[in-house]
From TrEMBL, chains A, B:
Keywords carried by this UniProt record: DNA-binding, Transcription, Transcription regulation
Full protein name: BlaI/MecI/CopY family transcriptional regulator
UniProt xrefs under Pfam families: Penicillinase_R
InterPro entries, sorted: BlaI_family, WH-like_DNA-bd_sf, WH_DNA-bd_sf
UniProt KW Signal keyword: no
DNA sequence: AAATATATACGAAATGGTTCGTAGTTGCAA
DNA sequence: TTGCAACTACGAACCATTTCGTATATATTT
């Protein structure tokens, strides 16, 4: 089950903060909304609540109802969700070509020297894995 | 103006085929739908027509009405659209970190040796640009 | 010339996602 | 113990997107 854009925003909060109440998720979202440029409009508390309820039904989050304030936790690891969304995005936007995506991501002069070095190292490791593993 | 998922599927056809009639777009979409696994349901002709009409209103495509069968053309280059969608995707899914995206894209063992070599070359060129340019 | 095929236009229903108001409940403070 | 604050549940409105039926016009075939 893959999250929508709003659901993903909530998952980002849960991945960073760990198990979290509705109120804390809502406040985190609105802090981010206020910081973005131009600032996004604040989201009502019950909107966040409803989304979390729907996400629980879909299995995107689990919840602990033992306290009056329910505690929500992301059901899937961030990496797994990123992989899944990435696959879909690459299929839709780059005809399935991961390397096209990477070329586009690196090819606009935004990457720092550190990032480039890191990626080059990764590639070297991948090549060695392929050769020796 | 950024395309929706269905609109993007149509743009992919237009980028590959160049200026195209509604019917040809519809047939291309349905060929792809039939090939995908599991196969997607076929899309009606008037659905494709309507989408193209809306896309023309939004400025995503231009159309030549000089013949009875209108001819549609993608308004933006594929690369520009990919950049724009990529920016949004990186922001939503990877907290804005392009290198996180790249690490994830390369780190699942799907990339071929040729792709890896190509990307390493690209990085080397980018590093040289930074040093000497 | 009539029938058939193919085209555009467009209203409207169906779908999916987001937003919030309101009702009802529980805890806490005055 | 009364009242206020914070919580969950949930229906319903709203919005964007997708889908298609039907009306109408134009070309083509018989």
């Amino acid at each position: 089950m893959t999250p929508t854009e709003s659901e993903l925003a909530i998952l980002q909060v849960l991945w960073i903060q760990g198990p979290t109440t509705v109120r804390a998720v809502n406040e985190a979202l609105n802090t981010l909304a206020a910081q973005s440029d131009p600032p996004d409009r604040a989201i009502g508390y019950t909107t966040t609540l409803k989304l979390l309820q729907l996400m629980a039904e879909k299995g995107l989050v689990t919840r602990d109802e033992s306290q009056r304030s329910h505690i929500y936790t992301a059901a899937a690891k961030q990496e797994k969700t990123q992989r899944s969304l990435l696959g879909r995005f690459v299929a839709n936007t780059f005809g399935g070509s991961r390397s096209e995506l990477v070329l586009r991501a690196l090819g606009d002069g935004q990457a720092t020297p550190e990032e480039l070095a890191e990626i080059k190292d990764l590639i070297t490791r991948l090549e060695n894995d392929r050769t020796h593993g």
